[in-house]
Amino acid sequence: MFVVVGATGNTGSAVVETLLNKKQVVRIVVRSADKGVAWKTKGADVAVASLDDVSALAQAFAGATGVYLMVPPNYGAAAWLSDQQFRMDRAAEAVKKSEVGHVVYLSSVGGQLASGTGPIRAVHYGEGKLEGATKHLTILRPPYFMENWAPVIGAAKAQGGLPTFIAPQAKIPMISTKDIGRIAAEQLIAGGRGKQVVELAGPAEYSPTDVAVVLGQLLGKPVTAQQAPLTAVVPTFKSFGFSDEAAKLFEEMYTAFSKGEIGYEFPNKLMRGTVTLSEALRGMV
């Protein structure tokens, strides 16, 4: 039996779908029973637990062969980093208490770096907390999610502009959350082998201009990547409801990426997904 945390999100839902398609027994962890109704009708067991409740979480993990763990961010939290670390502490404690033998943990590219990476600092902390909590730990480090483009498709439709903080011609690794979820499920089924780091990438690297071209083809109109200065990161993210600290962490992350300071730890061992940018964007459009 496999337990999935974050089953209502992009990666978690892909994990559950893959496991169920492979006829595995699945339990999902949700904050309220109503959030699990759709998965229950598809055959998943539903456990109601908060990431702040160690006892309920440990009970949800009990008896599992493996757990897919990601800690959803609350970007409105004033002290975002400490809030994220607090919930990571609780999750690691629940893993230890339930004696789960294998955890597949969603980290990020750059998760090996302790500082200067913005919100990636939270998953770096999580990697360290889980190391002593379970016998087998599989750390997934995906790059930029293709689905991160979804919120700006509306702007591309309306004005033909694709807002981005990434240089238009800069080709970077991008991956679909469907690939992340599929690979996570496959890692759960394969079982753990001590501590291992699995760094992910999509089938190719893409630039914001590539995204704009594909979007233009899908929308039937010209779309142009429009780079905003990094000084606009904080006000932009605060306008989305992010706290001041969370917005500043994203500015730190984009700055580090622009300087080439965030990258893979094992670039020669990448596990590549199969979903292309065109396929992912078609689904979003």
Which labels suit this protein?
285 residues, alpha/beta, 8-stranded parallel beta sheet, 11 helices, 42% helix
Walk me through what this model shows.
42% of the residues lie in helices and 19% in strands. The protein is of the alpha/beta class. The longest helix is centred in the N-terminal third of the chain and has 19 residues, at 80-98. The model has no long low-confidence stretch (mean pLDDT 96).
What sequence of helices (H) and strands (E) makes up the elements? EHEHEHEHEHEEHEEHEEHEHHEH
Give the overall pLDDT as a whole number.
96
Helix content: 40-55%
Count the E strands: 13
- Structural class computed from helices and strand pairing: alpha/beta
Distance between the termini: 35 Å
Poorly predicted segments:
none
Brief overview:
By secondary structure, the protein is an alpha/beta fold. The chain contains eleven helices and 13 strands.
Topology, element by element:
Blueprint: E1 2-5, H1 10-21, E2 26-30, H2 37-41, E3 45-48, H3 54-61, E4 66-69, H4 80-98, E5 102-106, H5 120-131, E6 136-141, E7 144-145, H6 153-159, E8 161-164, E9 172-175, H7 177-190, E10 195-201, E11 205-206, H8 208-219, E12 224-227, H9 233-239, H10 244-258, E13 271-272, H11 277-284
Parallel strand pairs: 1-2, 1-4, 2-3, 4-5, 5-6, 6-10, 7-9, 8-12, 10-13
Antiparallel strand pairs: 9-11
Helix pairs in contact: 1-7, 3-4, 4-5, 8-11, 9-10
